[in-house]
Amino acid sequence: MASTRVDPRLVLRGFDGELYSDDGEFLAEVNTWQARYHVTNSDYQPAGSPLSVGIMQSYSVTLTLTETVVRDTKLLKVLSDALKSGRQPSFGFQGVLRRPDGSTGRYVFRSCVPDGDIDIADVKPGDMINRSWSFRVNEPPELQSLLGA
Q: Per the domain annotation, does 40 fall within a domain?
C-alpha cells in the first residue's frame, strides 16, 4: 500500500496569497482575504429509507478582507460616493496564490457588492488601524488557473 506524502516545499503560507483590484492594481494594504462558497441544501428522505439526503437548492459566494488603513480612495471613497447617490457600488477582485515552485492559482471575483457591516475605522490603542470588508460575489468565480501537485 503506497503512502501519500506531502512535499513541504509546495505547501502554501499566508504570504503566498495576493489580492488585486479588477484593474490589476496590487492591494498591498490588504493583509488578509478569504473567498468562500456557501451551499444551501434541502433535506429529502425517500419513503422506506432511514437516510435523509441533501438536495442542492442554491449557493452563494462571499469575499471578505481586512485592509490596513493607508488610504481611503481605493475602496472607501467608491463606497461612500455610491451610497450618497443611492447607488449600489460594485467591485472586482483577483485573488492569486503563488507557490514557491512558480505555479499559481488565479481566481477572479466580479460584481462584488458590499454586504453587512463595513468598518470605517477600527481604532485600538497600540495597534494598526484596520478596516473589515464583506462582499457578496454576484457572479460565479472564474477559476482562471488552479494549483497542480
A: yes
